[in-house]
Amino acid sequence: MPSLIVKVYSLLFKYNLNRRLQSLIQSPISYPFNGVVSRADESIITSNPSFSTDGVATKDLHIDSLTCLSLRIYLPQSALISLRNLESGEGGYGGYVPGKNGKNCKKLPVILQFHGGAWVTGGIDTVSNDVFCRKLAKSCDAIVIAVGYRLAPESRFPAAFEDGVAAIKWLGKQANLAECSRSSLDKRIVNGEKHRGRQIVDGFGASMVEPWLAAHLDPSRCVLLGVSCGANIANYVARYAVEAGKLLDPIKVVAQILMYPFFIGNIPTHSEMKLANSYLYDKATCILAWKLFLPETDFNLDHLAANPLKPGNEKPLDLKHMPPTLTVVAQYDWMRDRAIAYSEELRRVNVDAPLLDYKDAVHDFATLIVLQKTPKAQACLEDISIWVKKYISLRGNEFSY
């Protein structure tokens, strides 16, 4: 059984979440022009482009002028071949700036991460998400890019899913721009030119090449990771990547990780009936969240965003080309049955889709800040790292699980 601390915290958490959802349902919504929504009652951590605190540098970006889609990049210190000159204070930036010659730069895989929060809360800068992403970057030895997708009810479906697709498209664009920039530099060197050369810019005159990614990103090793409702987004982006194929080049999605996905449906499963009042997120509260996220005119819990294995006469999803998928579930999570069923369906079509089922664990047990230091949370992060390194390690250094 979960500890007494978890039980007490769960009561407070459910009370506050339910109150917040009821407030959002009852309050009139003023739709912001730029799509930005902030929840003032959530504790946040500002970005820090220095490696000095815990060996991970962070940087915030806005990549869409219309929706203000935001990203936070987590760069582990392992990206540096040499530990000299970690920071260059160029231009008063006061943070890590890659060397111009690239000799001190190591290429790393990238993990595109989608936070949880029942569609209406959470963000890239919340304490829980920031601490988890820092640990993930160091444990997996990878660049982590957290996606600050639009929240409901200000932005309903498909806004969050569109933001996930926009993020991976942007990543592909960055990889292509970096390659163009390197090719241009190589050409100038061959021709013996000594001038700096032109810089690729956008229509506003701002540099489009993100220097951390240009120096350290390996686009051929991309992993998607989603937490709770973020797992629904990750799975959608994985399907998009399969359908897009070479249109996403040079980005290659090699694996995805679904941590206690936020699946639901009209016909209740055994766990949904037995654990309806379970810890942190009970079913009744989560249905309120789905009502705030799904289209108002056609509310249906068998919507493809909610139920990837929805029954009926519609053509079933073709899952055989999905990337290897690791699914994490918890014993005391009412959503577990649908996540297990989805994992089984992937294995049925010969996708590498292992399932990690943690005993005496609750929804969000590995990512909620108050639980991240527990043995189960630490074991989960280690298990994820071991598995994913099968697909992100360079040839000759593969891991086995």
Automatic annotation (TrEMBL):
All copies of domain Alpha/beta hydrolase fold-3, residue ranges: 111-366
The family this protein is said to belong to: Belongs to the 'GDXG' lipolytic enzyme family.
Protein name: Probable carboxylesterase 11
Biological source species: Solanum pennellii (Tomato)
Annotated gene: LOC107018780
